[in-house]
Design goal:
alpha/beta; binds (5S)-5-amino-3-OXO-hexanoic acid; binds zinc ion
Length: about 270
């Protein structure tokens, strides 16, 4: 099976003060996504920022970003419903009403660095049900083994459709640490037939992405997960990170999935 590469160009945390090449405004995000598509990415994980670069779930900004991307390329849009730590769940969940092809579903609340990431159980069930109704495929972000168990309970309740699409997130302070042992254990526990990738935050981004690929997973790359393209080397935009992930895929003798292959691999609603 070919390997899906997702670009995550912006994220909820970094600012232009951290790296001036971070795309935050709609045209910048669309341009970064377009370049990643031309390099070989099939999925764009999208976070939104307002005019002051703060995380936002504003539906007008979301629509504009989705339209600008769609004008440029057919990459599959995966809207973040995590948005940013200060944004209430009730605003974040509304983003799926725009019917992106996919959206994140974060199954549990947790500590997140010095903040809190709130995903209350009733809200998570409501969002899962709404995504199912709208045909928006969940990208299930699991930061620890208990989050996987919570996802499996949603599956048992009939709120998720297979194949499940997991992102194993390692390296958030509050979730599991970015170690090979944690990666192997999380992958070992995944249910048969699911699709998965590693999201490796920070300095283990490269090594854990490589391990995930070697274990048969998909890959994600971009400034949401790391601002460095090598030790002490700030990245100049998302392209070097996407190119690095694509090089890993090639070095491991794997084919990069096209948009059409990704739609099939994930059995995306709408064909
Ligand atoms: N940056 C991720 C670890 C989401 O997109 O829904 C957390 C996140 C969640 O951004
Ligand atoms: Zn995200």
């Amino acid at each position: 099976m070919s390997t899906v590469v997702t670009v995550a160009p912006t994220g909820p945390i970094a600012t232009k003060a951290d790296n001036p090449t971070l795309p935050t405004q709609p045209v910048e995000i669309a341009a970064a996504v377009h370049r990643a598509y031309e390099l070989g990415a099939a999925v764009a994980h999208v976070h939104l920022r307002d005019e002051q670069d703060r995380p936002t779930a504003d539906l007008g900004i979301a629509r504009r970003v989705m339209d600008l991307i769609a004008e440029r390329c057919p990459i599959l849009i995966q809207m973040s419903t995590g948005v940013g730590l200060g944004v209430p769940f009730e605003e974040r969940e509304k983003l799926v009403e725009l019917r992106p092809r996919m959206a994140t579903l974060n199954p549990c609340s947790m500590s997140f660095g010095s903040g809190e990431f709130l995903n209350p159980p009733e809200g998570v069930r409501r969002l899962a049900a709404r995504m199912q109704e709208l045909g928006v495929k969940p990208e299930l972000e699991i930061y620890d083994t208990g989050h996987l168990d919570a996802v499996l309970r949603l599956l048992d309740a009939g709120l998720l459709d297979e194949p499940l699409q997991f992102s194993i997130v390692l390296g958030v302070l509050g979730g599991a640490a970015p170690t090979p042992v944690n990666l192997v254990e999380m992958v070992r526990r995944l249910p048969e037939g699911c699709v998965w990738q590693i999201i490796a935050i920070g300095r283990s981004n490269l090594s854990l992405t490589a391990m995930g690929l070697a274990m048969g997973g998909n890959a994600r790359a971009g400034m949401e997960d790391t601002l460095y393209v090598g030790a002490g080397r700030p990245t100049q935009g998302n392209d070097p990170l996407v190119a690095r992930a694509l090089q890993l895929v090639a070095d491991l003798d794997r084919e990069v999935a096209t948009v059409e292959e990704t739609v099939k691999q994930l059995s995306l609603p709408g064909g």
